[in-house]
Design goal:
The chain is mainly beta and 261 residues long. Helices cover 5% and strands 43% of the residues. The radius of gyration is 21 Å and the shape is globular.
């Protein structure tokens, strides 16, 4: 991970944990200088499928999503479905794209957590930062036309967004070569600029929780995403609770007690 690359592998044989195939590889940050303090963390979306609002905007039901902390940044990455067609037939693969960035950190991001329970229609992400704050973000997928959806709009899930590509007879994706490749490279022909098939995501910091002004090392949600725990340099466990109005506040604080015998 110090290289700034994330490699994602999948296992198509659940009974054989020794067989893994690389699904995708993508760059999340520049390689940090030798000797610099580093911090990298990855957490997958624990929910069985994307929230209903994301499905409504065309996110495939089997789409994978993860939150990646790289140095002083954090971002959400999600897969899109890519259909490959050649003279022998067609096949599909998953490719990760940058969905949204979680901004506002003023230090190394030590840990990330994805809340279960996306039945609420959006996702909740928490980060632990060296600057002494626990940040909570809401990640949403707004309608493409800017109009709020009505209840009847959710009665039918639309078809997922799919990217179609053409391959040659040898199964290789047709791409420019020679001068054409150099032109494409000069124009930034990377996956970040190829936005086809990507669903718009937005993120908003909804809480900035101060953890006794000490660096935070770990965060984690309970099973329904309403309680958030954090620990830091002070050795205390902070419990934060989400209120019915969406605000987060401290619920309790646990610390080791010293007893003199």
């Amino acid at each position: 991970m110090r290289s700034g690359l994330v490699n994602v592998y999948e296992n198509e044989e659940a009974e054989n944990v020794d067989s893994w195939t690389e699904m995708d590889s993508f760059k999340v940050c520049e390689k940090p200088p030798r000797g610099d303090e580093t911090s990298f963390k990855i957490a997958f979306d624990p929910n069985l499928e994307p929230c209903y609002a994301a499905l409504r905007q065309g996110v495939p039901r089997d789409s994978l999503a993860l939150v990646v902390a790289s140095m002083n940044k954090a971002a959400i990455w999600r897969t899109k479905q890519v259909e490959h067609t050649n003279t022998l037939g067609s096949s599909s693969t998953k490719e990760f794209y940058l969905a949204t960035e979680l901004k506002g950190h003023r230090g190394l991001v030590r840990d990330v957590a994805w809340a279960p329970g996306n039945i609420r229609g959006f996702d909740i992400i928490a980060t632990a930062c060296k600057d002494g704050f626990v940040r909570v973000f809401e990640v949403r997928t707004p309608p493409a036309n800017g109009k709020e959806l009505r209840s009847k709009d959710y009665t039918k899930i639309p078809d997922p967004v799919v990217v179609h590509t053409q391959k040659g007879q040898n199964g290789i994706v047709n791409s420019p070569s020679g001068i054409g490749a150099e032109i494409a490279s000069a124009r930034g022909g990377s996956r970040r600029e190829n936005r086809e098939g990507e669903v718009t995501h937005t993120s908003k910091e909804v809480a900035k929780l101060e953890a006794n002004r000490t660096p935070v090392w770990k965060v984690g949600f309970d099973s329904d995403g309403l309680l958030l725990g954090s620990t830091g340099d002070d050795g205390k466990l902070m419990i934060w609770r989400r209120q019915p109005d969406g605000n987060w506040c401290k619920s309790s604080e646990l610390a080791m007690a010293r007893q003199t015998v």
